[in-house]
Amino acid sequence: MTLTTPPAPAPAVPDRLDADFYGFQDLLTPVEQDAVARVRDFMEREVRPLADDYWERAECPVHLFKPFAELGSVGAAWDETSRFENSAVFRGWVGMELARVDSSFCTFIGVSSGLAMSSIGLGGSPEQRAQWLPPMADGDVIGAFGLTEPLSGSDTARGLRTTATRHGDTWVLNGAKRWIGNATFADVVVIWAKDTADDQVKGFLVRQGTPGFTATKIERKQSLRIVQNADISLENVEVAEADRLQRIDSFRDLANVLRVTRDGVSWQALGTMIGAYEAAVTYTKEREQFGHPIASYQLVQDKLATALGNITASIGLCVRVAQMQDEGTQRDQHAALAKAFVTTRMRETVALAREVCGGNGITLDTGVARYFADAEAVYTFEGTRDMNHLIVGRSITGHAAFV
């Protein structure tokens, strides 16, 4: 007789998050609530069981992109792809649910459905939107977003070095990009370059396999290890005029894309701290010291209460900024303040979660270490805290202090 180990029971999928202390989820419509429930169920059943293993191996579960897209929550903001009427709060909440289980998976999905699709949705012609947005929303096409360069990060507005030179109906791109998520396997990469004729920023849709385009995975990362970040080399890459984003003519147009996606990073930071907090609460209830669960000790409860306060304040900020996006009243400074504040609170919260887990908190087994490490990347990208504070400071004082 052969004995087999029965499969582990499927994880419980909560209808409500304990970390949503003031019930912000109730702001979603019933249709949005149902969609969030499907996303939460997918993340708990399909992603959580494999997240630690893929993170440790620094590999990406690309095979889950299509099944996730089938839930109908990819690219829902665009007329060409919308399955149902939904709000920016809903789209942010979906991002939070992804990061709550795995911030790397959130980045993987967000690069394609956020950065890449937003570039096409906001900057593409009707023909380009019709060509690219539906297959991206269906999970048949994966996108990437190539803006950051080896020598240009925070100073992208002035320091972009990748060039685009037009020859008739063809553009020739030369330069390099760095930290480009999904670039090693994406079907299409949005490349941002300066037009050598007018020195203005343009966007280009570069297909994987185009001659002169090379994407090399960045190794030895210690944060967001599932995300396949790459160095990109562009050597005389030829792109047809038909693949230039037709409504992008300046950095201001690019900034419209970044404003929308910066909101998404705030929600991602929120999900990252909720995931760490939930893991810490579970651990403190199970771990006993001096004959009692450590959850029963005052100092532990103080840290958990501080973490919950950070989460609650951050949800409020994320929700209001998303509402302003729908109202058309959101400005750069609003998105910047949310990104700076929420990522700072995230950094504190994941540290508190790791602290209450003691030495065990540095292993993947407690569920905290991955969030703790991933938070460092989320804290930095889409504008550092300092750069976002300068955007807010300019709004407050009327003086730009960037240089």
Automatic annotation (TrEMBL):
Its cofactor is FAD. Residues 256-396 form the Acyl-CoA dehydrogenase/oxidase C-terminal domain. Keywords: FAD, Flavoprotein, Oxidoreductase. Gene3D superfamilies: Acyl-CoA dehydrogenase/oxidase, N-terminal domain, Butyryl-CoA Dehydrogenase, subunit A, domain 2, Butyryl-CoA Dehydrogenase, subunit A, domain 3. InterPro entries: ACX4-like, Acyl-CoA_DH_CS, Acyl-CoA_Oxase/DH_mid-dom, Acyl-CoA_Oxase/DH_mid-dom_sf, AcylCo_DH-like_C, AcylCo_DH/oxidase_C, AcylCoA_DH/ox_N, AcylCoA_DH/ox_N_sf. SUPFAM superfamilies: Acyl-CoA dehydrogenase C-terminal domain-like (SSF47203), Acyl-CoA dehydrogenase NM domain-like (SSF56645). Residues 144-237 form the Acyl-CoA oxidase/dehydrogenase middle domain. GO terms for biological process: fatty acid beta-oxidation. GO terms for molecular function: acyl-CoA dehydrogenase activity; flavin adenine dinucleotide binding. Its EC number is 1.3.99.-. Belongs to the acyl-CoA dehydrogenase family. This is Acyl-CoA dehydrogenase. It comes from Isoptericola dokdonensis DS-3.
